Every structure is written in structure tokens, then in C-alpha cells.
């Protein structure tokens, strides 16, 4: 424990940061800059690079425990989104009337920058990156933060931008209070993290819709009109902002839709109509049409030129670990989709790829319902390679839908077996539908090990 400087200046307000990950370090740096006496507490081990950042700024911290006496003397607490509000430590703080907020909320209090906030069960990282790419290439002074890249708070503290594109998870939304999104995007809502929401879908939907909280009548809310859970949430949630829906099933104006010629049409009042064939998109697949529609609406709200938007949509390179092409060996494509940690993400991956597929899946099952994948597995999947300690649910779900289901315990073994099952013209797809924590540090580590194992074939 490095307690040097722990709440020694009674003239300064005392900020406690729970969790010393990317968001926590950013909150600590911003808090110090704003005149707080700062203390960082992490129940786990703090990474060396984060320790160095704290030490370089003489910010006190502890690891592998929470010192309750210090925490309860805080004026305000910024917590990691990974710590549930119902956890014992957070409930003790709340009982003592100590405000507990998230890093996004905290950072927003110290910037006048405009915010474009993107959430959804699937596609939010891709849409966030695509939106950022379009706006940055148009010459805007724009930052990228939230659930992706460097923390929002750190950027506000050290290199402020005029606007930010923020990828926002439902966990982050739980810790919002006064935060307001200038532009809020809700891509879709499918069952995910239900263990965090008492296994009630309505609770999860309400968490997602809190992205519209505090919006004013001159703000914007962009949503998918084809998504059933979004429509249900919309029916019970008052929206103050200007709404722009997008759809592939019907004509929506203003908003975005797909016409009979398979062109994306975006109409925004008092602006030239945007038209682009889906064949010209860099990102292919039905789900990516939705992602491009959402990003396109944001770009049109910013009044960017149609030519600039088309150019970005046509040249965009997707983020790592999301349908990432690795290589081709003996006529077999290898695709890294390690970021697919829920069933719906795997559905999108299978839907966007040609048959035949050897699917590597498995990990920490969050109560997955695999029913939605059964038809695609029957149509497209040659075999399933299970990776992880608990593969029973995968076997039960798909034993009648594909001829081969094999268990493996390491990524190297999984890749080798998938390679032997696959035939020329097939795709080996890592798309786990599960969290990674049984065998890997995180989904990035899982994806990196997949790519390394493929290159060793």
C-alpha cells in the first residue's frame, strides 16, 4: 500500500477512486488536476504501468484490499463500471450518503465538449470507431473514449477535445447522474449481462435507455426501429430529444433506411439526401448496414459532406478482435471474432460469413440461450470446437445441428483441430459467445492467442 498523501489536506475535497484500471487512473489524474486529494483503492492487483502513472503524480493508492475507514471519509467516490452498485462496499458508501458515480459522469463535469454516446448489446465498438473515423477525417477536433481506447477523464485532464465519441456500456450507464449526451445512439438490445440485472430483461432495457437521461429538446436520439426490445423500451420511456430511427424493413424519413436497390438512404431536414449502395461499404453483413446507418445519421447531424461520409464508409478498417481477418492457409480463412462475448454477436458473425464454417466457441457461459443460433448452425457450420472448462450447454444446444462437436482446453489445440476439420474454401471462426475469464486474461488475450496459434500452423 502506498499511502503517502492519503487525505492529509483537510482543506481539499477527498476523492476515492475504486478500481485502478484505465477509467480509474484517468479519474484519479483528473481529480488531482481539479484540486482533489485523491486515493485509489483496488481489491485486486494493480498493473505496473498504472502504478507508475500514480507514482509519477504522487497519487496515493492501495491494492489487494479496500480500507473501509479511508473510503468512508471520501467526499465523492468514482467507481469502476465493473463493480456492481449492489456490491457490499458500494452499498456501505451509499448508506453513508457518499456520492458514488462513474468515470464518464465525473469527466463530463469538467468539460464543455459535445458528446456522441453509443450503446447497444452488439456493434457498439464498430459503430463507435466508424463514427470517430468519419468525424476525424472530416477535420473535427475529436476524441475517442469510453469503453474503448484511453479514458475519457484522462483526455479531459491532459488533452481536451471539442467533442468525444464515447462507447458506453450498460454498466457505465448505471453510474450516470447529471451526464447528458448531445447525441445518443442505441443500436440494439439483446439478452446480455442479465446476471447483473436480476435476470430481468426489462431492467437491462431500462439501463440501456438511461443513455437518453437528461437529454434536451435540441439533442438527438438515434435508434433501430427494427429492434423489438428497443421499441418496447421506447414505449415506456419519455424521450425529450429529436429522434432519428433507422431501419432495413421500412422507409423512415427523417432517419435512415434501405431502399429496394439495396442503397442506404439518410434524410435529415434541410440537408441533401445521402445515398450509398451497401455493396460499396467496407464493412459487409446485415448488422454492419445498421452500424453504417447509425454512424451516417451522426455524420449528417454534424452536417458533414456526403462525399466525405461515403469515402470513410468505403475505406474503414474494423477494430481488432471483431470479425478480424487473420490469414488464409491452404484455402481456409481464419477470422478472429474474440470480442463476440454473447450469443447475438455470434449470430451476427455467422450471418455475415459464407458457409462452410468451423466455429470455435466457449468460455464462461453467462446463462446463454443458444436457440437463436440453431438455424444458422444447421445451414453454415461444418463443426464446432468447444474451448473452455464448461462446454455442456454447447453440446446440449447443437448436438442435433452439426456432425462434429469437439472439446479442447487450449487455444493451440482448438486451432489445430479446427484446421483439420476445415476444408478448402471454409472459414475457421473464433466467435466464443462467452466471457474469456476461464482460460484468458480478457477477450483481447484470447484473440491474440488465436492469431498466434493460427500463424504457427
TrEMBL record:
Reactions accelerated catalytically: UDP-N-acetyl-alpha-D-muramoyl-L-alanine + D-glutamate + ATP = UDP-N-acetyl-alpha-D-muramoyl-L-alanyl-D-glutamate + ADP + phosphate + H(+)
Annotated localization: Cytoplasm
Pfam families: Mur_ligase_C, Mur_ligase_M, MurD-like_N
Pathway connected to this protein: Cell wall biogenesis; peptidoglycan biosynthesis
Residues binding ATP: 120-126
Keywords: ATP-binding, Cell cycle, Cell division, Cell shape, Cell wall biogenesis/degradation, Cytoplasm, Ligase, Nucleotide-binding, Peptidoglycan synthesis
GO molecular function: ligase activity
InterPro entries: Mur-like_cat_sf, Mur_ligase_C, Mur_ligase_C_dom_sf, Mur_ligase_cen, MurD
Domain Mur ligase central: 118-298
Enzyme Commission (EC) number: 6.3.2.9
Keyword Ligase tagged: yes
Residue stretches making up the Mur ligase C-terminal domain: 321-434
Stated family: Belongs to the MurCDEF family.
Known function: Cell wall formation. Catalyzes the addition of glutamate to the nucleotide precursor UDP-N-acetylmuramoyl-L-alanine (UMA).
Protein name: UDP-N-acetylmuramoylalanine--D-glutamate ligase
Species, as recorded: Olivibacter ginsenosidimutans
Amino acid at each position: 500500500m502506498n499511502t503517502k498523501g492519503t487525505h492529509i489536506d483537510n482543506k481539499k475535497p477527498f476523492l476515492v477512486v475504486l478500481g485502478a484500471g484505465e477509467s480509474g487512473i484517468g479519474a484519479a489524474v483528473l481529480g488531482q488536476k481539479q484540486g482533489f486529494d485523491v486515493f485509489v483503492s483496488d481489491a485486486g492487483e494493480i498493473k505496473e504501468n498504472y502504478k507508475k502513472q500514480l507514482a509519477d503524480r504522487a497519487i496515493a493508492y492501495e491494492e489487494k484490499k479496500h480500507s473501509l475507514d479511508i473510503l468512508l471519509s471520501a467526499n465523492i467516490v468514482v467507481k469502476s463500471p465493473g463493480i456492481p452498485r449492489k456490491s457490499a462496499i458500494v452499498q456501505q458508501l451509499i448508506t453513508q450518503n457518499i456520492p458514488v458515480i462513474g468515470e464518464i459522469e465525473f469527466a463530463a463535469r469538467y468539460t464543455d465538449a459535445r458528446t456522441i454516446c453509443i450503446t447497444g448489446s452488439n456493434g457498439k465498438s464498430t459503430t463507435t470507431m466508424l463514427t470517430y473515423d468519419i468525424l476525424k477525417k472530416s477535420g473535427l477536433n475529436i476524441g475517442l473514449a469510453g469503453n474503448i481506447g484511453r479514458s475519457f477523464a484522462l483526455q479531459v485532464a491532459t488533452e481536451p477535445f471539442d467533442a468525444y465519441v464515447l462507447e458506453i456500456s450498460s454498466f457505465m450507464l448505471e453510474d450516470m447522474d447529471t451526464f447528458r449526451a448531445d447525441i445518443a445512439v442505441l443500436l440494439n438490445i439483446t439478452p446480455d449481462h442479465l446476471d447483473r440485472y436480476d435476470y430481468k430483461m426489462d431492467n437491462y432495457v431500462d439501463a440501456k435507455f438511461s443513455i437518453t437521461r437528461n437529454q434536451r429538446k435540441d439533442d438527438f436520439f438515434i435508434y433501430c426501429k427494427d429492434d423489438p426490445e428497443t421499441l418496447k423500451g421506447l414505449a415506456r420511456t419519455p424521450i425529450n430529444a429529436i429522434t432519428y430511427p433507422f431501419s432495413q424493413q421500412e422507409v423512415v424519413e427523417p432517419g435512415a433506411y434501405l431502399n429496394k436497390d439495396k442503397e442506404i438512404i439518410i434524410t435529415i431536414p434541410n440537408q441533401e439526401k445521402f445515398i450509398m449502395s451497401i455493396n460499396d461499404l467496407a464493412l459487409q453483413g446485415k448488422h454492419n448496414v445498421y452500424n453504417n446507418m447509425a454512424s451516417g445519421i451522426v455524420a449528417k447531424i454534424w452536417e458533414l459532406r456526403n462525399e466525405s461520409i461515403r469515402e470513410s464508409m468505403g475505406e474503414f478498417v474494423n477494430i481488432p478482435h471483431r470479425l478480424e481477418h487473420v490469414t488464409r492457409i491452404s484455402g481456409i480463412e481464419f477470422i478472429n471474432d474474440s470480442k463476440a462475448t454473447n450469443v447475438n454477436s455470434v449470430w451476427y458473425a455467422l450471418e455475415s460469413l459464407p458457409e462452410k464454417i468451423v466455429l470455435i466457441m466457449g468460455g464462461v457461459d453467462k446463462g446463454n440461450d443458444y436457440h437463436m443460433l440453431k438455424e444458422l448452425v444447421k445451414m453454415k457450420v461444418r463443426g464446432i470446437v468447444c474451448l473452455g472448462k464448461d462446454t455442456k450447454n454447447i453440446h446440449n444446444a447443437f448436438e442435433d445441428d452439426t456432425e462434429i462437436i469437439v472439446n479442447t482446453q487450449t487455444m493451440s489445440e482448438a486451432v489445430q483441430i479446427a484446421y483439420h476439420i476445415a476444408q478448402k474454401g471454409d472459414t475457421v471462426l473464433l466467435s466464443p459467445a462467452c466471457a474469456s475469464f476461464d482460460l484468458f486474461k480478457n477477450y483481447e488475450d484470447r484473440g491474440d492467442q488465436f492469431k498466434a496459434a493460427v500463424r504457427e500452423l
